Amino acid sequence: MLSIARLTKRYGDNLLFDLREFRLDAARAYVLTGMNGAGKSTLLRVLAGLAPADAEGMHFAGEPVRLAPYPAALRREIVYVHQHPVMFSTSVAGNIGYGLKARGMAHAEASKLVEEAMHWAGVLHLRGSQPSTLSGGEKQRVALARAKVLHPRLLLLDEPTASLDGEAREQVLALIPSLTQAGSTVVMACHDRDLINLPDVRRLKLRDGQLEEK
Amino acid sequence: MGLMDAVRGAFGLLFNGDPVLWRIVWISVSTSVLGLLIAAPFAVVGGYAIAMTQFRGRRVVIWLVQAALSLPTVLIGLLLYMMLSRHGPMGGLQWLFSQPGIVAGQVVIALPVLLAFTLAAVQAADPRLAETAIAHGASPWRVMSTLLYEVRFGVMAAIISGFGRVISEVGCAMMVGGNIAGETRTITTAIALETSKGEFAQGIALGVVLVTIALAMNGAMMVLQGDAHAARGRG
Questions:
Q1: Which position has the higher pLDDT, A141 or A168?
Q2: Contact B107, B166 (CB under 8 A)
Q3: Which residues in chain A are contacts of B126 at CB distance < 8 A?
């Protein structure tokens, strides 16, 4: 689904990573582990077009694409979710429908999809709530719904369970497998043992600027 | 005339609907609002663009914008006077000593205020907002509208500050407008003229109008913000 040849990221003279080949298969879940500062978040941000990097070649869904300038078409296929998702100043439903509106989808169709996504994430009761009233776990679930509603081919989640505990964490963990079942490839940067040990998840580790599959 | 007589005279002018006084107020408010309406789109988009784009010379541009905040309005008036005078490059417009000339001055005065405040508001916004919009497929225009909506109180503060700056300036309006009664006499140029003649009543009345406008604008801002800052202060 995605392959990048020789993906390198530098900060000045410092090399963060130099990946000879980076490949992701369709509708699979991956966890990306590594020490703090290994470049996990940066790698996700590079894939989302939010940080620059160098690549010798890149293919997405069988088509050759460039990493820079990042193609607008890729932005519609790849969605990135921050470790601490930020909400826009609108209702929960408005947040979840943001990307659909950006794609120019008709209101009625978008409303139906937003409703389904809210149901999936268990946030139907929060439909009209303002994001400032949400807990961390609710925000994370709204952010996942906001991403899932777009049916991205590639979903990049930066530490989706970080700073969550108890029921909130369990609720987020329960949503992850259904993302791949819906056809998305999911890459999660994480330290969370329960995420790493989810069934049918491939484990990648960034160490010393190299990627290892475990 | 004693101070109390002047104050009584001022309120008499205000509440008896003195046509000369209210004509002055109208000229001031209409030219200021028009100047702001012209300057705001350019300044807000410009402030956003400077905040969000990395380019060579960006720091110099920010330095110049901030320096322009402290330019004396009389100097802006002088430059505009030279541009608009009969032999100046814009003399053909015949805007000197006219309301369009005052509006042009208000635009030049308002631009750096609006630009600098918008720039500061966008720079202070959480960078994840723009990234989230981008990462969900928003076009550059939608990213801009999203972010400007998120910092709308900062942009409103910019517009209120810009209005305060243009309606209270005297140098440019005096030089470019010429202080012509009923045509280009604004609140500030009228206050300067009346005071120089020893007529304080009209000056005080116009000062009351200026203070009222300032209170109303800032009150509206507080209402729009939902009095959030005040609530935090109490907490």
A1: A141
A2: no
A3: 86
Q: Does residue B175 lie within any of the structural domains?
A: yes
pLDDT at res. A106: 96
Are B166 and B176 within 8 A, CB to CB? no
Interface test with A, best of B52, B54, B131, B132 (most A CBs within 10 A): B132
Does A49 touch chain B if contact means CB atoms closer than 8 Å? yes
Per residue in A175-206, pLDDT (tens digit) is: 888 999 989 999 999 988 888 888 889 999 99
Instruction: Give the tens place of pLDDT for each residue, B173-220.
Output: 999 999 999 999 999 999 999 999 988 999 999 999 999 998 998 888
In 3D space, the residue among B135, B138, B130, B146 whose CA is nearest the CA of residue A152 turns out to be B135
3-state secondary structure A19-86: EEEEEECCCCEEEEEECCCCCHHHHHHHHCCCCCCEEEEEEECCEECCCCCCCHHHHCCEEEECCCCC
Residues in A touching B133 (Cβ below 8 Å): 88, 98, 102
Question: Mapping DSSP to helix (H, G, I), strand (E, B) and coil, where does residue B34 land?
Answer: helix
Query: How far is the first Cα of chain B from the last one, in angstroms, to the nearest whole number?
Result: 49
Is B146 contained in some domain?
yes
Option in A75, A103, A150 nearest B134 (CB): A75
Q: Is the Cβ of B132 closer than 8 Å to some Cβ of chain A? A: yes
pTM for this prediction: 0.89
ipTM of the complex: 0.93
Mean pLDDT for the stretch of residues B139-166: 93
- Kindly tell me if the per-residue pLDDT of B155 is higher than 70: yes
pLDDT in tens, B117-138: 999 999 999 999 999 999 999 9
Contact at CB, B126 and A89, closer than 8 angstroms: no
Q: What tokens appear for A117 in the block?
A: 């996504």
pLDDT at res. B1: 61
- Looking at beta carbons, which residues of chain B come within 8 Å of A104? none
CATH number of the A25-51+71-213 domain: 3.40.50.300
Q: What percent of chain B shows pLDDT beyond 90?
A: 79
Distance CA A99, CA A79 (A): 10
CB atoms inside a 10 Å sphere around CB B169: 23
Angstrom distance (rounded) from CA A153 to CA A184: 5
Structural domain including B131 reads 22-190
| Angle, vertex CA B166, rays to CA B164 and CA B172, nearest 5 | 145
Annotated domain spans of chain A: 25-51+71-213
Decide: B185 and B24 in contact? Cβ < 8 Å.
yes
As for how many domains chain B has, the answer is: 1
CATH number where B112 lies: 1.10.3720.10
